[in-house]
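An example makes the point: we print one protein in full, the chain in one-letter code, the fold tokenised, without further comment:
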Amino acid sequence: MRTQSRRSPRTLIAVAAIGTLITPLAACSGAGGSGSSGGGDSINVLMVNNPQMVDLQKLTAANFTKETGIKVNFTVLPENDVRDKISQDFANQAGQYDVATLSNYEIPIYAKNGWLHSLDEYVEKDTAFDQDDILPPMTKALTAEDGKLYGEPFYGESSFLMYRKDVLEKEGLKMPPKPTWKQVAELAAKVDGAEPGMKGICLRGLPGWGEVMAPLTTVVNTFGGTWFDKDWKARLDSKEFKEATQFYVDLVREHGEAGAAQSGYAECLNNMTQGKTAMWYDATAGAGSLEAKGSPVKGKIGYVPAPVEKTDSSGWLYTWAWGIQKASKNPENAWKFISWASGKEYEKLVGEKAGWSNVPAGKRTSTYDIPEYRKEAAAFADVTRDAIAAARPEDPGVQPRPAPGIQFVGIPEFTDLGTKVSQEISSAIAGRQSVDSALKKSQKLAEAVAEKYEAS
């Protein structure tokens, strides 16, 4: 059971509180979305426009619809836009969309507000879906504080360190199997400039609670810091939070990519793919692109767990998952779609039709037993699975937390708080202010949020 706090606050959700987690990927025009929940033989699905979802859209009519007779009307939008649209439709229980892509950040919050259908009854009846095959951290992350399941993962990820094996070897360097952040900083300094135009490391600096704050918060955790202590005292001005943030800012300023303050996931992926950086700490999902057919660095990348300092692990936990709106008039058909899209056979379908590197992995144990997938993802499959298994959303640091989350704090206010703090951090990365100045302002922002919870 996922617990939020021993001193759980009154519901403070506002539609505007639910924002973006990671940067939008390539644009994709929306499709479908007729304006009302579909009839008995159709459903409306609102989803993010990442590559795995685009593959799903292409495969649905010829497979799911052909098998079930259920037409799926898709609305596909960039991440910022889709989150806004989902929050509006689900908060108002308008029922325009039956199913939407939600993350493990939103699902417990939406469930607490009564915006989602519990999936337990469907899982119990649909034995072929095999809930036990879903990786336990994913099931736990999508279970609300009432103990019920409200989402099924489409794909899952953690974070790890990616590095150029050939570059380190050429420089006579060796990557530790479980590096510390200080070891990573030393390596970054040594490989900076190892090839023309190559920087030592790429780290997100782009403003956004799911951009720079995602990797930085994992660094804060393992350095011994936290956003809030167990009594909801804001701790952004603590020694540990300052040390972690100063380390991160110094590392990216001294050995990171050019224009770091405006670089997010997409920019770092491009830098790593194009050979402009020797290391990259980010989402495990990035490995599929690095190892894809035609990638200039395919076969040259090594993968090790997220760097640590005071904790045993520090990788984050994230999933794009399916949730059914409580107001849906077609929950049975909505479940049939989810069961297909997150099922074992779908992953095999993607492998055969779109290539095994495109399989939406990170959610099922059985995926890692598929010979074709293991061959294609040999370089990173086990490291990814181990990172997901080691993720500890309830206990990611060295002290008790009042709310779950590794790269975020599982409260609705974090979208706004994290975004504002990220702007201060990005400003420090750009050299416009000191880390102390950035965190002094950030502490006041966090204190304002904490007051609501301390009084509950």
Notes: The beta strands are 42-48, 71-77, 99-103, 152-157, 159-164, 279-283, 301-305, 318-324. The longest helix spans residues 435-454. The mean pLDDT is 91. Residues 41 and 70 are 5 Å apart (CA to CA).
